[in-house]
Design goal:
The chain is mostly helical. The chain is elongated, with a radius of gyration of 20 Å. The N and C termini lie far apart (59 Å).
């Protein structure tokens, strides 16, 4: 048995590769999407209920807090989609090496950032 192994790992001192960060953020964006779908379905239901419901949702859409929530949900969708496409490409055997995974993670991250900025422009 190796006596030099660490007893307590401090996760903040461990240098993770970019592939680990995008993977962790991919899971977090999935959680935001799960919660955000409830918000979006409520908005859809209220807007389709009646003309007054549609008008109230339209007025709610002008609220900066509602716009921020909508942007967060769209940002999570954009990030989750970009990383999902990255995983789909890797399932076909492209970019499975260490270097390929890092390049794919960087490309997908850039694509996600562009999509998130475009979602912000669209919301505001």
């Amino acid at each position: 048995m190796n006596k030099k192994r660490p007893v307590n790992l401090d996760i903040s001192t461990i240098k993770l590769p970019i592939t680990a960060y995008v993977s962790i953020l991919h899971r977090i964006s999935g959680i935001f999407l799960f919660a955000g779908v409830a918000f979006l379905l409520w908005m859809l239901d209220a807007s389709l209920d009646s003309q007054e419901g549609f008008n109230s949702i339209r007025d709610l859409g002008a609220n900066p807090i509602c716009q921020a929530i909508l942007w967060v949900v769209l940002a999570a969708l954009a990030y989750h989609t970009a990383m999902g496409i990255r995983h789909l490409i890797m399932d076909f055997g492209v970019g499975e090496s260490l270097k390929g995974g890092q390049v794919g993670a960087k490309l997908a991250l850039v694509a996600a950032i562009v999509l998130i900025v475009l979602a912000g422009v669209w919301v505001w």
